[in-house]
Amino acid sequence: MKTITFIGNGNMALSIAKGLKENYKIEVVGRDMKKLVQFEENLATNTDKYLLDNFDITDKTIILCVKPANVTEVSNKLQGQAAVLYSVLAGTTLEKLFNNFSTKAVVRAMPNLAASVSASMTTMTGDTAYKEDALKLFSTIGTAHWLGSEKEIDIATALAGSGPAYLALIAEALTDGAVKQGLKRDDAMVIMRGLFDGFGALIQNEHPALLKDGVMSPGGTTAAGYGALEDGNVRSSCIHAIEKAYKRATEL
């Protein structure tokens, strides 16, 4: 079984590792052995654990999951040359990664937290020699899609990487709306989750505008609610959210 080495042991590393553990051997590298032990316990599988100082990355397949601000500090603690480095750091360019890490190849990847349930939407770009390997690796945790430039992956970060937070806000708000009208919260939560589950299947094969048109009958309940969303500038706010998140990605 091939080994994947995680440098960093935060929430994103754990989410990805949960999706990969059935198909890959996992090892994790970090600063604090207690936190590495906790990572292993949360992962619920045997994991090789190493401290960061002087860790040898020679010929390893690395998934880099540290904070973007810590790139230089982390790279200075490593030895050897990796076979390939997959970075999930938002806004951290291929050039910066090559300048800081000794590796034969670099691929930028942007999964999301749904990796933990093998339902991530992961976008990638980088060394095209590793395109097929990257697609195979990240397809084990959901859907993987290769992009042609770093600008595109920064935009995709705003959409798919940050998207779960936006959808969580909408899910919470819709549930609160049902509770406000008198539905019990437990019932509202069950209905909301069923809504998202069904919509996730429908959107795979249908344009969102056609889905909307299929539900919105003239003068009906959906049209009334949809009009309220337009009055609240929900569409404009979503577009603006992607713009702001993309700009932030380029600033990191």
What's the SSE blueprint?
Blueprint: E1 3-7, H1 11-20, E2 25-30, H2 33-43, E3 48-51, E4 55-56, E5 61-64, H3 71-75, E6 78-79, E7 84-87, H4 94-100, E8 106-110, E9 120-126, H5 131-139, E10 142-146, H6 150-161, H7 163-180, H8 185-202, H9 208-215, H10 221-231, H11 234-251
Parallel strand pairs: 1-2, 1-5, 2-3, 4-6, 5-7, 7-8, 9-10
Antiparallel strand pairs: 8-9
Helix pairs in contact: 6-11, 7-8
Give a brief rundown of this model.
With 252 residues, the chain is α/β, with parallel strands linked by helices. It has helices at residues 11-20, 33-43, 71-75, 94-100, 131-139, 150-161, 163-180, 185-202, 208-215, 221-231, 234-251; strands at residues 3-7, 25-30, 48-51, 55-56, 61-64, 78-79, 84-87, 106-110, 120-126, 142-146. The strands form two sheets. The chain has an eight-stranded mixed sheet, sandwiched between helices. A two-stranded parallel sheet has the order 4-6.
Describe the fold and architecture.
By secondary structure, the protein is of the alpha/beta class. It has 2 domains: 146 residues, 3-Layer(aba) Sandwich (Rossmann fold); 89 residues, ProC C-terminal domain-like (ProC C-terminal domain-like fold). The protein has 11 helices and 10 strands. It has an 8-stranded mixed sheet with strand order 3-2-1-5-7-8-9-10, sandwiched between helices. The chain has a two-stranded parallel ribbon with strand order 4-6. Helix 6 packs across helix 11 and helix 7 packs across helix 8.
